[in-house]
Amino acid sequence: MRQAIGAGIDPDHAALVGRSEIEVEQVPDDEKEAAPTDFKPAAVRGLVGGAGLGLVLGLLAMLVPAVGIHWAGVAVCVVIGGCVGMWAASLAGSAVPSEVRRDYRREIEAGEVLLVIDDTDDALLERAVAAVLSTAGVHRLQVLPHGLLQ
Fold first, then answer.
1. Are the C-beta atoms of 17 and 146 separated by less than 8 Å?
2. How far apart are CA 32 and CA 10, in angstroms?
């Protein structure tokens, strides 16, 4: 990781990912993956989905004369739908491993520690990769796009 940072990678754009016992014993906290689960992406998807469903249900309720809710009622449906959707999806997402952990499961289970770098500057990424690969015992895995910065 020092080589990547030395090549210009922001420390917040790099993380070390490994088996839990390796991370606990050997990886400093500031170098670990920020979110080992899909909690945040799931919460965002739940918020959007729940708010969308609340909007649809609120608008449908406006069309039914017997229900007779106002625009403020639609807004309440959107807020409640968003909150319930975010809560339910974040609970489910907290049990799902992150994309990196899913895609590189075999390597992590074999005891390898992965250096994950996510930056928008391709030239900087190539310099960092070259610097890291010059280290003994380091090899490159198939590169898969992930949203570490998201």
1. no
2. 14
